[in-house]
Amino acid sequence: MPWWSWIVIWIALVALSLLFFVVLGVRLFRQFMTTVKELGEAADRFSQLPSTAPNPIPAEPGASVIPVPGPAVFAPPARIRHEYHAAKSARQEARRLRRVQRKTDRGQPQRLHDIEFS
C-alpha cells in the first residue's frame, strides 16, 4: 500500500467520527429542547390550582358525578375512618351483587355466603 493511502484512510476515519459526533449532538439537542418544552407545559398546567368544589355538577344530565376529594388532612380521623369503611363495604356489596347476577345469568350455583345476604 502506498504511503498516501494511510493518510486518506485516517482522514476518512476522522471525518466519519466528526460526522457521528455532530449527528449525536444534534439529536441530543433536539431531545433536550423537547424535554424543556414538555416541562414548560407541565409547569403551566400544574401551576394553576384546581377548583375545590365540594359537589360538582355534571355537564350533561346523564353524566355521572365524580366526587372531588375533600381535605382529608384536616378532617378528624374518626370521620375519615368511617367514610373509608363505609365505602369499602359499599364496594364489597356491589361486587357481591355483580357476582350473584353473573352466576344467575350463567345458571351456576350460588355461594352460601352470597345467598345469606340476599
Structure, explained:
- The chain folds into two domains: 48 residues; 45 residues.
- The radius of gyration is 32 Å and the shape is elongated.
- By secondary structure, it is an all-alpha fold.
- The N and C termini lie far apart (95 Å).
- It is built from three helices and no strands.
Key terms:
0% strand; mainly alpha; single chain; 69% helix; 3 helices; 118 residues
Whole-number tally of structural domains: 2
Number of strands: 0
What oligomeric state is this?
Answer: single chain
Largest sheet: none
**Stretches with pLDDT under 50, minimum 5 residues:** none
Per-chain topology:
Blueprint: H1 3-47, H2 77-106, H3 112-117
Question: How is this structure best summarized?
Answer:
The protein is mainly α and 118 residues long.
